[in-house]
């Protein structure tokens, strides 16, 4: 985050050992305040040892975080109440003991500060159950998402089964069908934003329509870096994305899919943390939700292409620009996806009657009693920066195959950012 121009105030604990001394020295060299770091004698600094397979995927891990459980108490957190209450965002990870998680959430809630919950692991992700009402945003992977939903439901009714798909499009469709009930359920529990990491399949961004929780509550000043980054992104893709175009009174759910950026993988260690750090930095710097997640995806790409957990060199130009940057992804955002429980005939009529849209294919999906109509859309009158409000699309718009009318001056691009709007998920 410091390399992205943000100066986070950290509250944590380290031991009085070589690892603790190294971390404190590193943080200070980055210009970060270490006032909130408790260094304890005769205690080992928290450490995690991971085992990866030949492709770089995590297959096992052992965590030793007893110092956090024992010493990161509510009383230590209360010492820094001023920092918490004046922060633009508070990020909590699930390594904190439950009583400390609750104390931090209450302090942030009383000051109107958004809270991001980082699940850490499947087991610890369940610690969200008693604090879900305070959580603004969370960033689970597929398995953590389901574990969190099940921790809040009785009896357990959400599940996820990994399936090998022939191509990325099929994988994304499968993940959407499998995970959407859990995503909708967590939003119903009060969480405003879900950033679900899908590995090589990208990220789902799930929220209620018209979600913009940071813009109204941001209390920090932009740094020169964040201003430069925001200008570059806005120059390529203005911030009036579909989330901000929707009605405030709407309670419908949107699921955006942002694909991963192709990368030459060296090490996957730290990529998830880099993604979250990039999202937080961008939100604090004034970027909107989709821009922020795109920046996080770009930082994660830089991480997996680096031997170090954190990329050595990051600049606004390298993050936002180029064919592989998030700006390039966002610039190609030209269509929406919608899932509804309408009948096939209703969807076909609405597709064909909508100006600028034409139905080229229609299918019905019986999963969870939801009907899906599929269509492609001409982009003759549509620009990426002027996406139509989601509430006018009760159907599912698939990959754009229609060519732009001759002489229109518009070129049809392949879809990159896909959007589902959920009227509702009807469960069996």
Question: Could you characterize the architecture of this molecule?
Answer:
- One of its GO terms (molecular function) is metal ion binding.
- It comes from Panicum miliaceum (Proso millet).
- InterPro entries: PfkB_dom, Ribokinase-like.
- The structure is a single chain.
- The protein is of the alpha/beta class.
- The chain has three domains: 1-72, UDP-N-acetylmuramoyl-L-alanine:D-glutamate ligase (3-Layer(aba) Sandwich), CATH 3.40.1190; 86-331, UDP-N-acetylmuramoyl-L-alanine:D-glutamate ligase, CATH 3.40.1190; 337-422, no CATH class.
- The protein has helices at residues 18-29, 66-71, 74-78, 81-85, 98-110, 122-125, 142-151, 168-188, 224-236, 242-245, 271-284, 289-304, 316-320, 326-331, 344-353; strands at residues 12-15, 37-40, 47-52, 58-64, 90-93, 115-118, 137-138, 193-197, 203-208, 253-258, 337-339, 357-358, 374-377, 396-397, 418-422.
- Strand 3 (47-52) and strand 4 form a beta hairpin.
- The longest helix has 21 residues, at 168-188.
- It is globular.
- It starts with 11 loop residues before the first strand and ends in a 6-residue tail after the last strand.
- The model is unreliable at 214-221, 235-250 and 331-428 (pLDDT under 50).
- What would you call the quaternary organization? single chain
Q: What is the number of E strands?
A: 15
The helix tally amounts to 15
- Sequence of secondary-structure elements: EHEEEHHHEHEHEHHEEHHEHHHHEHEEEE
> What's the CATH H-level superfamily name of the largest domain?
Ribokinase
Gross morphology is: globular
Cα Rg: 22 Å
CATH level-3 fold name of the largest domain: UDP-N-acetylmuramoyl-L-alanine:D-glutamate ligase
Strand content is 5-15%
Structural class given helices, strands, pairing?
alpha/beta
Mean of all residue-level pLDDT scores: 70
The CATH architecture name of the largest domain reads: 3-Layer(aba) Sandwich
